[in-house]
Amino acid sequence: MENHREYLRKPEWLKIRLDTNQDYRGIKTLMREERLHTVCEEAKCPNIHECWATRRTATFMILGDICTRGCRFCAVKTGRPTELDLREPERVADSVKKMKLRHVVVTAVARDDLNDGGAGVFAETVRAIRRKVPYCTIEVLPSDMKGDDESILTLMDAKPDIFDHNIETVRRLTKSVRAIATYDRSLAVLRRVKELSPNTPTKSSIMVGLGETKEEILQAMDDLLENHVDIMVIGQYLQPTRKHLDVVRYYQPAEFEELKKIAMEKGFRHCEAGPLARSSYHADEQVDPESRLRHDRLIEEEDHEDQRI
């Protein structure tokens, strides 16, 4: 007998109005021309139209589009990755320059087949963007790189403006939600980054709606704060396909507001919480104020140079 699973219907307030304007189409065309991947598309992010069409921001996904892990919440393809494209950092930097992005997020599939987990390509991508678009602030969102200290050192040597690594869910659900990654190893990576670069903001996200309790969410907040994480993002889990984990429940907007209030009272520098909040959502607003001022001055200088030309 077939097992008929019941699926929760998405609430009306979670339905998204698409805006595929000229900016959106231009970015999509550029991504195809440069043979680049974005997590916006691969992970079926619900904010892609707002980010591409309105904010003109994008999250580049380097190291290919095939992940070595098979997390049960994620829509990115799983399998054996192809060889590395060593020209990818320059192509990403060229695209950031063409789009005139002020803030860029660089993420990647997990590459457990590589000794450094892809840290070297991450670092080269950060440096390439710095050379070609000095006014752009850069956020990195890597895997845990198996907690390897040399890999973390390699990536942080490139000096990103924000380091982001997601714990994804509460401790109890980690084993059923994530593949290979562990709750404690993710916390250890975030702690190590802060030890290496105390002034670099660190950030982590969780999805709700997978069956966690409020007490477990609050414990996750405390765990992140104990490991010196500055920024927390809380968003609703949305099932990418019927092969993925089911949504246990949809949180109401008022519940996200309450969680954000609690997070700020606990001591986070910033908390983004909402049904569609994701790691890179409004990421440009989370940059350290001093870094933003420095990069704003560079933007003004480039605008004056363009006017002279």
Q: Helical percent range?
A: 25-40%
Q: Per DSSP, what share of the residues sits in E-state strands of 2 or more residues?
A: 5-15%
**Major sheet:** 8 strands, mixed
Give the integer mean of the pLDDT values.
83
Gyration radius, to the nearest Å?
A: 19 Å
End-to-end CA span: 72 Å
Number of strands: 10
Across the major sheet, the strand order is: 1-2-5-6-7-8-9-10
The H-and-E topology, N to C, reads as HEHHEEEHEHEHEHHEHEHEH
Q: Which class best fits the helix and strand makeup?
A: alpha/beta
Runs in which pLDDT lies below 50 for 5 or more consecutive residues are none
What is the 3D shape? globular
Q: Can you count the helices? A: 11
Structure description:
- The model has no long low-confidence stretch (mean pLDDT about 85).
- The strands form two sheets. Strands 1-2-5-6-7-8-9-10 form an eight-stranded mixed β-sheet. Strands 3-4 form a two-stranded parallel ribbon.
- It starts with about 20 loop residues before the first helix and ends with a helix.
- Helices cover about 40% and strands about 15% of the residues.
- The protein is globular.
- α5 (about 120-130) links the parallel β5 and β6 (about 135-140).
- The chain is of the alpha/beta class.
Structure described in brief:
40% of the residues lie in helices and 14% in strands. The chain has 309 residues and is an alpha/beta fold.
Describe the SSE topology.
Layout: H1 22-33, E1 37-38, H2 39-42, H3 48-55, E2 59-62, E3 66-67, E4 77-78, H4 88-99, E5 103-108, H5 119-132, E6 137-141, H6 149-156, E7 162-164, H7 174-177, H8 183-196, E8 202-208, H9 214-226, E9 231-236, H10 253-266, E10 270-274, H11 289-308
Parallel strand pairs: 2-5, 3-4, 5-6, 6-7, 7-8, 8-9, 9-10
Antiparallel strand pairs: 1-2
Helix pairs in contact: 1-3, 4-5, 5-6, 6-8, 9-10
